[in-house]
Amino acid sequence: MPVLPIQSSTTTEECLHLGRLIVLTGPSGVGKGTLMRSLLQRHPELYFSVSATTRSPRSGEIDGKNYYFVSLSKFEQLVAEREFLEWAEFAGNYYGTPREAVLNQIQSGKLVVLEIELEGARQIRASFPSALSIFILPPSFDELEKRIRSRAQDSEEAIARRLLRAQEEIQAADEFDIQIVNDDFETALNDIETVLFK
Questions:
Q1: 144: closest CA among 30, 10, 56?
Q2: Where are the transmembrane segments (predicted)?
Q3: Could you tell me which residues are annotated as the binding site?
Q4: Which amino acids are annotated as binding site for ATP, given as ranges?
């Protein structure tokens, strides 16, 4: 993962007048990753920021495309060097957004999209007040639980942790500029496009 120190003369707010930072978040299992993939297929002009994580790759995931998969010690080093725009712990693993690549893309006038967890989204709102934040909601909590279980990727203990975390995250939805319910996939995708390109 190429990480370079940002020039001290460049503030985050100075970058934002050229491009725009978009934050997409929502509880685990809500479908934000699938929405993001479809959005990027339809709009290749968007820049998707690849996060770093300490978790192991899932089947089919590619280092540098889905995530930068790094060791805990490497992640801690990057945190110490302030190389992340935001970082957070989720379900026992750490996730972070590389700072330099995002700021470079915003400076070049791009719409930069982050798909991150609630804690990271709050950090972004503190450092980028003019970022546009979108929260993806499930049609119901029961439907969210069904989606998480249908993945068949987690232990019962991990599912319980994700569901508890999801309840807390859903309560924070009104902190975001836009809330979109992912009930019908195409409708949710069209709603995101309307927000970004209206």
A1: 30
A2: none
A3: 26-33
A4: 26-33
